[in-house]
Amino acid sequence: MVKEESGEYLQKVYSAKDNHDLKEAYDLWAGKYDEHVTSFGYQIPAVAAGLFGKYVMPDITPILDAGAGTGLMGSVLDALGYREQVGVDLSEGMLKKARERNIYTFLHQMILGEKLDFPSDHFGACQSIGVFTAGHAPASAFEELVRVVRPGGYIFFSLLEDVYAPKGYKEKFETLENDGKWQLTEKTKKFPGLPLEDPDLFHRVHVYRVH
Ligand SMILES: C[S@@+](CC[C@H](N)C(=O)[O-])C[C@H]1O[C@@H](n2cnc3c(N)ncnc32)[C@H](O)[C@@H]1O
Predict the structure, then answer these.
(1) d(CA 174, CA 59)
(2) Domain span including residue 175
(3) pTM over 0.85
(4) For ligand 1, is residue 71 a contact (CB within 6 Å)?
(5) Contact between residue 184 and residue 124 where contact means Cβ atoms under 8 Å apart
(6) How many domains does the chain have?
(7) Residue 25 CB–ligand 1 contact under 6 Å
(8) Mutation test residue for ligand 1: of 40, 136, 201, the one with most atoms within 8 Å of CB
(9) Residue 114 bridge partners (DSSP)
(10) Once rounded to an integer, what is the mean pLDDT over residues 189-200?
(11) 23 alpha carbon to ligand 1 midpoint, in Å?
C-alpha cells in the first residue's frame, strides 16, 4: 500500500505539465518525500557527494543548492563540513522541510529556467541533484547557473539519460562549451538513480568547470 502511494507521488512529478503542476505535486509530497525516496534507494546524492569532495574544498563558499527540495543533498554536504549553503526551489512545501534542517544560510523560492535573484560570479560552487529529469527543470536553466558561479567554480548536476538529447540538454551543454562559458570536467557512468523503484531509469552526474 505504502509502495503504491509513493509510486503515485513519483509519477505525478514526472508527468507534471508545467511549473504550476510540478510545484503543487512537490508541495503535496514534501512531508513524505524523504521517506519515499529513501525507500526507492535514492543513490544520486551519494554519487554526487563523492564527486563534490573530489573538486571542492570545504573552505569554498557560498554553495548553491539549486532545486534543494527538503535538503537531502545539502544535509550530506553539511555532514562533510561544507558551509554557507544557499538553497532555491520552486516548491514552498519542500523549502519548509529544508528550513527545519537548520543547515542553510538562506532558502529562497526561485525557478530554475528563469532569472535567478543573485549577482553574477557569486557562488564558489553549485550542485543540482535530482532536478534535471522528466518534467522538471529545463536546459535553459544552465545559463543562469553558469552566470552566478564564479570562474573556476564547479557545477555538479544529475541528468536523466532519457532527456539528455531529446530535451535540448546536449545542445545547451555544447553551446555553453563553444561559447567558452564552461568546460566538462567529468561525467559518471550511467546508473539507476532510484534502483528499488525504477531500475531501468539511468542518470549520470556531470561536473563542469565555469570559465
Ligand atoms: C527530486 S527533488 C530533488 C531535491 C534534492 N536536490 C534532493 O536531491 O533530494 C527535485 C526538486 O527540484 C525542484 N524543482 C524542479 N524543477 C524546478 C525548477 N524549474 N526550479 C526550481 N526548482 C525545481 C522540485 O521542486 C524538487 O524539490
Answers:
(1) 31
(2) 2-210
(3) yes
(4) no
(5) no
(6) 1
(7) no
(8) 136
(9) 112
(10) 97
(11) 9
